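Anyone have tokens for Dienelactone hydrolase family protein? Sequence:
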Amino acid sequence: MAGKEITITAKDGGSFMGYLAAPPGGGKAPGIVVMQEIFGVNAVMREITDWYASQGFWACCPDLFWRIEPGIQITDKTDAEWQQAFGLFQKFDIDKGMEDVAATIDALRGMDECTGKVGAVGYCLGGRLAYHAATRTDADAAVGYYGVGIQDVLDEARNITKPLMLHIASKDGFVPPEAQKAVKDGLAGHNTVVIYEYAEQDHAFARMGGAHYDKVAADTANARTIDFFKTSLA
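Reply: yep, here.
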């Protein structure tokens, strides 16, 4: 079932779009905030959101670039789009973005159809935001795929109290080995954190249709994610 666009109220005024997809039958279910890559709420992110909904969740992908330019929907197929995406990434305010993630969590929790349990999952930029969802929001669980820059904010790890899962690509072109080691070492003492490493995989190995897509690794990571959410959001 195709999703629909909804309006979410920002905590500091204004509003932004969220792409909302319903679970089969549209009944009572937990929620998941799906956090975008650097290409906006594009066709890939909408398909991912639909997929989480098909697994039994109310899934919502918020437009986290709305403060820069609302409605960004670009692809990873041309150099021009990559340059635009990197430009958006550089302008992105993570603090404000996390306020918008928190507002999306609240919006899902406020739905009569939501059980009240809400998780967060993100990819690339969203993978970093998934870590912050665990350190800065009241999300009930969070999953990050190949998050960039987590090694620079490990001081926030002391705030983690809910389950967090990170998927790390061992050959990630945006996260060098020393950064990966710092993340693994820095989170090793947290009993609510689980980290999976995918040998020989590059950044965005789970982006279907992407240059580095690997079906076996993606299926493995996705199965772990769904099991994690079904347990953590029960």
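The chain has a mean pLDDT of 96.
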